[in-house]
Amino acid sequence: MPDRDAARRATVVTVVVVAVLVAAQTAVTAAVTSGTQPAMAVESVPSDPASSQWSDAPERTVSLSKQQMAPPFGGGSTDELTVQTVHNDTHTAFRLTWADPTNDADIGAPNNYSDAAAVMLRTGDKPPITMGAAGKPVDIWYWRASWQSPDASKSGDMYAYPHPEEETQPGQAAGNPLSTPPTERLAQNYYAKGYGSLTHAPRQNVRASAERTDDGWSVVFVREHGTEGKFDADLTKGKNVYLAFAVWNGSADEVNGQKSLTLQFTKLDTGKWAMSDASSGSSSSSGSGQSAESGGSGGQSEGVWMTHSVSNWVIGLVVTTLLTWTVVYWRARE
């Protein structure tokens, strides 16, 4: 029976394909998501993304998702990000690398948005992924491509002529640090206690540098281990530091809350100097109900991440199964 033979052959091939896909997915998840990546010790921490020292640093790939936890919802144009960490006795550097086909650094016209990247950090107990919470503030390091543009001093200067700057650029005229590009450090240090609470840190102690690669960006953030900033992450030896990451694609109209971000934490253990997945851990509890609520928020966000990841994987597996069986069946009948 040709039809029966074709169906049998299609079933056998499909089972083999599905088994290979499941095995590959398991291996990749274990190696990339759940594994441990050392933070490489170096004599001098490189601030240049193109430094040859980065070629030897272990990589950790993290998944990025659309921001759907607080308005304005949006983003999601970037799927993943590669993180590398190096350190010496006094400084730590993170290099973030991701694919972005467009170089969005010129924001000198209406509806132009800059590419950008950020690292969110907290030392000690794990904060909610929603930019911290009351009692669990987070430290945020932020870089924007427009600050490194040759026309950075003109960025945002859309209506400068013939009007005076105090009318067209009131933030800069008033000395607002959020309106002044950090032309030397190319990064800004912020604190947050939840969505809508972002504030400019009094101590600006983070440096950044970026390189436009063939297919995207490489951005390096560098800071001393110990600082006197009130909510600065403590990177001295023997600490647990929780890290989350975000990127903005300007050409996709991503700005403010519209971004691609990690929905689970990476933990940097500065005792072992290694990075690992922190999603299986739990926030340390104190006696306050507020802390318990914060921990619950973090767990809920991680549950959302897991739900989305598993759903996408199952859908992809079902589609692959149906396509494989159909193609093999009809070819076997020919």
Characterise the protein shown here.
- The protein has 334 residues and is of the alpha+beta class.
- It folds into two domains: 1-34 and 304-334; 38-281, Immunoglobulin-like (Sandwich).
- Helices cover 25% and strands 25% of the residues.
- The chain is built from four helices and 16 strands.
- Strands 1, 4, 7, 8, 9, 10, 13, 14, 15 and 16 form a ten-stranded antiparallel β-sheet that branches.
- A hairpin with a 6-residue loop joins β9 and β10.
- The two termini are 13 Å apart.
- The model is unreliable at 29-33, 155-161 and 281-310 (pLDDT under 50).
Summarize, please.
The protein is an alpha+beta fold and 334 residues long.
Output the keywords.
334 residues, alpha+beta, single chain, ten-stranded antiparallel sheet, 4 helices, six-stranded mixed sheet, Immunoglobulin-like
